[in-house]
Each structure stands twice: as structure tokens, then as C-alpha cells.
Write a structure and sequence with these properties.
Chain B: This is Glucose/Sorbosone dehydrogenase domain-containing protein. The complex is a heterodimer. By secondary structure, chain A is an all-alpha fold. The N terminus of chain A is likely disordered. Chain A starts with about 30 loop residues before the first strand and ends with a helix. In chain A, about 70% of the residues lie in helices and about 0% in strands. Chain B has one domain: Neuraminidase, CATH 2.120.10.30. By secondary structure, chain B is an all-beta fold. Chain B starts with a strand and ends with a strand. In chain B, strands 2-29-28-27-26 form a 5-stranded antiparallel beta sheet, with no helix packed on it. In chain B, strands 12-13-18-19-23 form a 5-stranded mixed beta sheet, with no helix packed on it. Classes of the chains: A mainly alpha, B mainly beta. Strand 1 of chain A pairs antiparallel with strand 1 of chain B, so a sheet runs across the interface.
């Protein structure tokens, strides 16, 4: 009877509709539709597309930082954990591309995103270093990763709201597992950051 | 004010862009012979209640942040004029509108948001808004009830519990508790506690450490044996009446878990719908029926109710059996213990018992011979949240219909339902999802039914989708 995926989410039986259908003839006594006419719907999807652009940029930036962090970590367990997180981050970039495709939109500035992401990353790291007040050690990379993951987690959580707001479970089915993964990654990063930070700060030893 | 409403056709309803509810089709629902069903509005976002004015105008509340609290949409009151024009009558800024009643040029609305529920009224012609009450403690799980206006010219309104199961528990943080971590239940009269507390994980700590919580306390605050919690006039689980200008408020009842629907019949008797305890969590209760209460104190003259009646929350089920009885032991979660020592006299039994988790919501008495069934109570059943709130397979289809109830005999039968049990989305039809309110038209010929829209439920969580709500109209042919 019900068709639930591995997340227990109901999967719609219908194909994602084309929004380019001809508008039906108006009827004096017909139902009132709120926001459901093709023109309004297209506008909503355009706005979601703009947000997805921001999400993509933030996610690419985060992935880049995760890659850089792996190369700095010596302790094998932490290094493996961050390697796994880098893998997740790459998957989540592909998920944003899938979301674009789902709403029939394209990442117009995709080719520029790499440049934007690098600039964003440098700016972010510069700000975070200032916040740490000259503290030393590679644990700071994890601190930066923690905050940038939180940033992207927020971006995907907002995207999830769009799916809920527009009755599009396909968006939720993509974003909810990502949010879950990012929450899990956040816990992992936080644990290792705290582990490294106390040793680095008190004993002046890098891990 | 933002509103994008267009006229469509029944053909449009078969190709909606909302993939969770891709079609709406009156042919997929059942009503008794001699009645026809139409779709009046589609694309509503989390509709929570409605009212009908004397001239036939229909007001519909879109609740904003509802069940669960995400996503948020614009909390507002829409107005459907008799000429078919739809506009935004009011936008709420401090919460989401829920129930609504029209009387003599005023629209009375209950609003949930923040740590307190508000009861307000709009002067319909001028749009002037007046806050009648803003001190009803809330901020938690359940809803304001009503308001309704009686033939006695008094305003009746209610407030459900903050805690879902008699104690604030982690699941509360999937809804309003995340914004109101200090919220807790408040009793309507002095109660002495048994000292039983509930251990749970604390989602507010860096790790989900264990914490102990007592009834009528915020999360993480235990109760002591013999501790007396002072009753408050402005409690929750309470039901009040007042004059229409908000003066002379009087507490009639408390211990009502979620009295979302209030209705008054032609004899002036007041009834309240109420929802059962859930079979999940660290204080889980099985087999507690949904119910409709007769609020007997409403029969007494205003100002004469010395002691409010108590309807059982947090310790007595609707069938009169204590929540800790073996017959209430849960399959999912931990069994409940008593919270109240020497509880007040129970004001039950209810006039109507319904299957657990049917989720009875708003309702209206038929006062018209034209529609038929005069004197019967038409009661919406929003529908189960199983498997989230019960692991029992038989609970999966409960609700999702409008019942016709005889409050004198306690019998009920479905009046408006899908061709198969459950919401339309269970099997891809264009029928009903979750009826939340029903009100008779001003001319007495029709019953409007407000359908909340599509909700996904799993064993672990629920998600609600905006732009999937519908206003249906059932008319006697």
C-alpha cells in the first residue's frame, strides 16, 4: 500500500511534473488555486535556484577545506574520520547538482563557483584565525571545518524548508539524509577538535 | 499582503505541481446519497480553522508554523467573499492563528505563539484588532481550543497541554519546545504530586545526558513527593468563558489534554474534542481513546462556577482507566506512573469515544433542516500519526474523515471519507488528506470542510507540506 524509502519517507508514485504545461481555461465557478498557477510556481522555483547557488558555493568551499585538513592531520583515526567527511562533502556537492536538475534549473555560474569558493574560504579562515587569538596547532583546521560545516548544514536545512513549503517531497528526500549526515559529521569534528585542542593548548603538542 | 490566487478548473486539480498531492478529485470521496462535493480552494498552507459570517463570507486561517513547527509559512486569515473573491483579511505577527468564530461583525481568533496563547478579535468592517487575552500559558505541544460563541452571548475558549504526555520530554523539542525550553504545564487547581518523575535524555545538554523531570515542571526539573503545585486561573489544559469584550473571564474546566474543537448546540450545551495520550516516549500510554467531552460547567450561570471540573490529564484515560493500568502498557516506550496524589474528582465519562489516534479536531453542530441531520455534531478527524505515535498496525488508518456524532446516544458514523480508509496519499487518489475543521454555511445548505493537507509520518518523525490544503464544500442536492 505505502511506498516508503529506506528513510521511511513516502515516495510519490507520480513523475515530477513539467511546469511548462499550457494554462487551463479559466472557469467562473472553478476552484481557487493559491500559488499553484504555472507562472507563480516558476517564480518560486527560480528563487529556490538562486538559493541553491549559494548552497553549492558554500559546499564546494567546505569540501575544499576538508581536503586541506586531511593533509594536515597526522593522527590516523582523526585523519580517517576527516577523509570520510571529505567523501561525504563531495557527495553533497553532487546532491546540490541533483537538486538543480530536480527543479529544472541549472547552476548558471557553476564554472565560477570554484573561484568564488576559494575566495570565500580564504575570507572565512582569515576571520576564524583572528577569533582564535594566536592559538597554535593543526586542531585549528578542525575548528574551521566545524564552523564551515555548520554553515552548509544551515544551507541544506533551508533548502529542505523549500521542499516542505512547495509540497515537493523529492527535495526533502535528498536534503533530509544530508542534514542527518552533516549533524553526524558535526559531532565527529567537534569531538576530535576538543581532543586535539586541549592537548595543543595546554601541552603545546601538535597531533 | 502577498496572495497569489487564480481561478482554475477541475482539470487543473488533476495536474497540480505539488508532487505530494498531485491531484484533488471530489469523485474520490464518499458522502451519503443526496449530497455533492466540490473543491472551493486548493493550495492552502497549513489551514487550521475557519468561520462563516452571516452574509456567507468564509474566513480561513493559515496557521503559519504548525504541526510540526517546520516549515513556517505566512500566518494569516484569508477571506472568501460571497462573490468568490479571495483576499488576505489579516496577517499575524506573534504566532499562528488556529480556531475562529464570527459573531455580530467581529471575528474571534485564537493565536498560538511564544510562551502565551492569545485570544483576539477583529472588527471585520474596520479591520481593527483587539487583544482580549494574552496570558494563557502555552509554548508547548498542544493547541488553543475554539473560540466559539454560545447562545448565551459568551465567548468560550480553551488551551491544551504544554507537555505531550504529562511531563515535558525530548520529543517536545521537535515542535514548540525548541523555541520555549522553559515552558511547562500549569494546573487549574492546587495539586499534590506523587514525586514520580521521568528519566529521559536532555537534548539541551552538550551530550544528550540523562535528566529527571516532574509534571508541571520544565525539562530537567524533578518533582518531590508531597509537593503542592498551586493552581492558576490562567492554566493550560483549561477551558474558560468570558463576555465578548474579554471581561469577567471564568475557568470552567481543566485536565483537557488537547481541546482543539469546541462546539455548542441549539440547547446551549458545550462540547470539546480531545486527543488521547500517545503510545510512545518515556511516559507512554496505550489504548487511550480519542473523545468528545460535555463541559457541564458551561450550563451553570456565569460567575457561579466555584471549582473547575477536571477531565483527567495527566493521569486518567478517556475510558476512566488510569494511565498506569496494565491495559495501558505500551508496546513502544516506557509505561506511565501516577503523577497526582489524591486527584480531583473525574468529570468524565465523555459523550463519545473514538479509536485512539483518530485525532479529533474541530467540529460544528448542524442547526439546519435544509442540510439534514439537525442536532448532530459533525466532527473532523485529522487522522493518526501512527506509526510515530503508536506501533499498532490497526492504528494506521484511524481518522481521516468527518464523523456525524449523536452526543445523546454516543454513536457516530462517517459522513465524509475516502473510498478506502486512510488519507488519499496512501493509495494515490485525489480524496481527503486530513480534515481539520468543518463549519456549516450561513444558509444552512452546505458543510465546509477544511483539509490540512499532506503529512508524511514514519516511525521516527513527521513532516508536513504546505500548499496542499483544501477547502471542500458538501451541499445537499
Amino acid at each position: 500500500m505505502n511506498n516508503y524509502d529506506s528513510w521511511g519517507l513516502y515516495r510519490s508514485q507520480v513523475n515530477f511534473p513539467s511546469y511548462k504545461t499550457e494554462k487551463a481555461q479559466l472557469s467562473k465557478d472553478g476552484p481557487i488555486l493559491i500559488d499553484l498557477d504555472p507562472k507563480t510556481w516558476e517564480q518560486h522555483l527560480d528563487r529556490i535556484g538562486q538559493w541553491l547557488g549559494n548552497t553549492l558555493m558554500a559546499q564546494i568551499s567546505y569540501h575544499q577545506l576538508a581536503q586541506d585538513t586531511v593533509s594536515k592531520i597526522q593522527e590516523p583515526h582523526i585523519r580517517q574520520a576527516i577523509t570520510d567527511i571529505t567523501f561525504h562533502a563531495a557527495n553533497h556537492i553532487r546532491a546540490v547538482e541533483e537538486l538543480f536538475s530536480l527543479i529544472d534549473r541549472h547552476p548558471y555560474f557553476f564554472s565560477q563557483y570554484g573561484g568564488h569558493a576559494s575566495a570565500m574560504l580564504k575570507e572565512t579562515i582569515s576571520g576564524l584565525k583572528g577569533m582564535l587569538g594566536g592559538a597554535q596547532g593543526d586542531w585549528q583546521m578542525l575548528h574551521q571545518l566545524l564552523l564551515t560545516n555548520m554553515n552548509t548544514l544551515g544551507a541544506f536545512a533551508v533548502t529542505e524548508q523549500f521542499g516542505l513549503l512547495l509540497g515537493l517531497s523529492e527535495i526533502t528526500q535528498i536534503t533530509l539524509p544530508i542534514i542527518h549526515q552533516k549533524q553526524t559529521d558535526q559531532l565527529v569534528i567537534n569531538e576530535y577538535m576538543l581532543e586535539m585542542a586541549s592537548i595543543s593548548i595546554v601541552y603545546q603538542q601538535n597531533i | 499582503m502577498y496572495l497569489n490566487a487564480t481561478k482554475g478548473t477541475t482539470e487543473d486539480l488533476k495536474h497540480l505541481p505539488t508532487t505530494v498531492r498531485p491531484q484533488i478529485n471530489p469523485d474520490d470521496v464518499l458522502v451519503p446519497e443526496g449530497y455533492k462535493v466540490e473543491v472551493i480552494i486548493a493550495g492552502l498552507s497549513f489551514p487550521t480553522g475557519m468561520a462563516v459570517a452571516d452574509d456567507g463570507t468564509v474566513f480561513v486561517n493559515e496557521g503559519g508554523s504548525t504541526w510540526p513547527t517546520r516549515p513556517a509559512s505566512i500566518p494569516r486569515t484569508l477571506r472568501l467573499n460571497p462573490n468568490g473573491k479571495l483576499d488576505v483579511f489579516a496577517v499575524e505577527t506573534l504566532g499562528g492563528p488556529r480556531g475562529m468564530a464570527y459573531h455580530n461583525g467581529y471575528l474571534y481568533v485564537s493565536v498560538k505563539g511564544g510562551y502565551h496563547t492569545r485570544i483576539l478579535r477583529h472588527h471585520v468592517r474596520t479591520g481593527k484588532k483587539e487583544i482580549l487575552f494574552d496570558q494563557i500559558p502555552d509554548g508547548g505541544w498542544h493547541e488553543p481550543g475554539g473560540p466559539v460563541i454560545g447562545p448565551d452571548g459568551y465567548l468560550y475558549f480553551a488551551q491544551g497541554s504544554v507537555a505531550q504526555q504529562g511531563v515535558v520530554l525530548p520529543q517536545g523539542f521537535t515542535v514548540d519546545m525548541a523555541k520555549h525550553p522553559l515552558a511547562h504545564d500549569v494546573p487549574g487547581e492546587d495539586v499534590t504530586l506523587t514525586g514520580n518523575n521521568v528519566w529521559s535524555r536532555n537534548p539541551l545538554m552538550p551530550f544528550p545526558y540523562l535528566t529527571e523531570t516532574g509534571p508541571f515542571k520544565p525539562l530537567g526539573v524533578p518533582a518531590k513527593k508531597g509537593e503542592v503545585i498551586k493552581g492558576q486561573f490562567w492554566c493550560n489544559t483549561g477551558l474558560w468563558r468570558s463576555k465578548l469584550d474579554g471581561t469577567e473571564p471564568e475557568l470552567l474546566a481543566w485536565g483537557l489534554r488537547n481541546p482543539y474543537g469546541l462546539a455548542i448546540n441549539e440547547e446551549g450545551k458545550l462540547y470539546a474534542s480531545d486527543n488521547d495520550m500517545e503510545e510512545q516516549s518515556e511516559r507512554a500510554v496505550a489504548n487511550d481513546p480519542d473523545r468528545i467531552w460535555h463541559i457541564k460547567n458551561a450550563q451553570k450561570p456565569p460567575g457561579s462556577v466555584g471549582r473547575p471540573d477536571w477531565y483527567g490529564y495527566p493521569d486518567i484515560c478517556a475510558d476512566g482507566i488510569p494511565v498506569w493500568d496494565k491495559s495501558k502498557y505500551p508496546l513502544k516506550g516506557k509505561a506511565a506512573e501516577p503523577m497526582l496524589q489524591n486527584p480531583p474528582p473525574w468529570a468524565g465519562p465523555p459523550v463519545y469515544l473514538e479509536n485512539p489516534h483518530s485525532c479529533m479536531t474541530m467540529m460544528d453542530f448542524c442547526k439546519s433542516d435544509v442540510f439534514g441531520h439537525r442536532g448532530k455534531l459533525f466532527a473532523c478527524e485529522w487522522g493518526t500519526l501512527a506509526p510515530l505515535n503508536s506501533p499498532r498496525p490497526k492504528a494506521l488508518d484511524n481518522g481521516f474523515k468527518v464523523m456525524k456524532v449523536d452526543v445523546n446516544t454516543g454513536e457516530g458514523e462517517p459522513f465524509f471519507m475516502n473510498k478506502r480508509p486512510g488519507p488519499a496519499s496512501y493509495y494515490g487518489s485525489g480524496g481527503i488528506e486530513r480534515p481539520v475543521d468543518c463549519k456549516f454555511s450561513a444558509d444552512g445548505k452546505s458543510l465546509y470542510v477544511l483539509d490540512f493537507g499532506y503529512v508524511t509520518v514514519t516511525g521516527g518523525f513527521m513532516l508536513s507540506y504546505a500548499h496542499t490544503g483544501v477547502l471542500w464544500k458538501i451541499t445537499k442536492e
